[in-house]
Structures are given as structure tokens and as C-alpha cells.
Amino acid sequence: MPKVTGTILELDLVALEHNYNYLRTKIHPTTKFLAVVKAFAYGSDSVLIAKKLEAIGVDYLAVAYAEEGKVLREAGIKTPILVLHAQPYNYPMVIRYCLEPSLYSRRTLQEFIKTSREEKQKAYPVHLKFNTGLNRLGFWKNDIDFIANELEGRGELNIKSIFSHLAASEDRSEEEFSQNQIKSFEKIAKEFTARLKYSPFMHLLNTSGIFNYPEAQFQMVRSGIGLYGYGNEARYDAMLRPVATLKTIISQIHHIAPNESVGYNRAFVSREEKKTATLPLGHADGIGRQYGNGKASVLVHGMASPIIGNVCMDMIMIDVTGIDCKEGDEVIVFGKEYSAENFAAGANTISYELLTGISQRVKRVVKEA
After folding, report:
1. Architecture category of domain 31-228 in CATH
2. pTM for this predicted structure
3. Any idea which architecture 244-366 has in CATH?
């Protein structure tokens, strides 16, 4: 890899394939695999990641919104794309780009039937989401009769799948709740199949569900964070490889005398002589103010260097006292050597938020194999 000359997000596609292959070892060979590429593929590059996932054989992709699916179709992606939170005003776009919407309420079902009729669609593929305890989106069990009545005698829609979402699959203390969700989903599926007289495929498990509840994999599983190298538990993290590494450089080094301050609002005041380094990234790049004042560290030549003072819009300052470094040297913010989960933990947040928050002004670079 060429010498880093600024702030970049390095993407390792070999790691992505490794993670996919590892996740597949946890499910049956015949179980379909849906890869979640919403939010710029968890803050990386949705087109680049989707093309790699398509090449290695995923069965489905998923995005949050129709516009994200449009981008993938315009980039030449052919794999089926599930839109998890499609909005009715975008239903014509959904159809135009051959996307498959999640319908999750009486309103969304009626609106999509109406749009499909207007667009002269027959057997258009859709997915129905049922609420089993997350209480975010989804039909209720008692909506099944309504769904059946709406679809009776109509040919506009083809129900490809029914699905739900586990609320706490990574939390072993909530195992009883998760098991109740699984049972609830099975009951819904049984009643749905009996009432509508056909059997769409079923999916429930997210990344942690794949690891902790493989008996509930049904016909497809969905993975987002696991593909990008994080398993929500240390034992699974050890088997996965982070896809994204955020790198930057030292712009300037300062020698700070006792009682001198660093940064806005004099948030850091030195009690002794310090050597600090200024880095060219800040909260406009996704490293929020919550990481300042010692809440997170970066790596300089493999040594932890805490962020000091307040994070600025375009800069952060770090303590490099005792570290042999110079201006222009490479700095690892997070990645394989120091995970996004570890970086995020100091500020009481999670890898998901950190990864998806990396600004689009940070250049994405593919790591050479």
C-alpha cells in the first residue's frame, strides 16, 4: 500500500470475503444469505462492497431506502435487493429499479397495491415484516386476515418472504425474550401459510442471531455488521476481520509546557511537559466530540495515543509524549490493529455508529491483496 498522505478509509475486500465465508459456516449450505449494504455499506462504499458480495455469491442484498437501491442498480448490480424501510412516495422508484420492498403496515400494503396497479405490475415481489417484540416496524399477528383480504383476487403482488427482527440477539441475558420472538414468528408463519394457502420463505436472524440461534435460520439469514468484521462478542470478533481501517497522518507536533492548554475552550490543560500531535480529521469526518478528552485513543507506531482536548471540526489533538514520531507519520484511528468496537467503547457507543458515521469526504481506498 502506498504511503498515506492524508486521511483515508482503507477497505479490505479479502477480509470481506473471509467474513462471508466464516458466517456461512454457521448455517446450512442451502440457507440463503442476505448481505446488508445500507448506510454506504456500514460507512464503507456500497457499490464496491455490493459488487464484491455479488461476485462471491450472496443471494440477496438489503438497503434501508429506495435511493440506496437505485445507486446499486445504476452501478450494474443485478442481485435481488430488499428495501427494508421503503417509503410510499418512493414506490414508483422501487418498481422502476426492480427493488423489493418490505411492507410493514396496512398503509404500506394498500399503497403498494395501488402503485403496482397504476404501474400495471403483476406478481411484483414484496416482503412482509411482522413485529415480534422489537416494536419498531411490522404487521401484528392479528393483521393476517387483513392482509389475506387485501390480496384476495388480486394479482399485483407476490409475497416472496415474511420476516421479523430479533431485538436482543447478542444479549445472552435476554435469551428468553429472543426465544419468545422465535416462537411468535413461527406461529405467525404457520397462520399466514394456512390463511393465504402458499408458503413464502422466512428469515429472522441477524449477525448475532446467526451465532446464537442457528436453529432459527429458516430459509435465509441476514448479516450486516458481521460482514464488516464485528460479531458483537469478543469470541466472534476474533474470528472476523475488520474491513475498514481509518488512517491519517500527523500534521504538526507541538511541545506543550506545564499549565498550557490545548484546543477549544481550553478543555485540556497540561500539568507537565507534553508532546502533542495534530491530525487532519475531526467531527466533520465522523470522529465526534464524544471521543475527545481522553475518551478514545489512536495508534502511533503501535502505541496508544489518547485524544486530548475537544475534537474540532477538522482536527484532533493527541498525546504522543514518549513516542518517537514525526510530522507526516501514519496514524491508525481504528482497524485490524485497534478495532472500531474498542475505539467506540470509550465514548460509550458502538461500532455501528462509528463506522456508519465516517464522512463521505474521507477518501475510500481499496487495500491491495
Report:
1. Alpha-Beta Barrel (3.20)
2. 0.95
3. Beta Barrel (2.40)
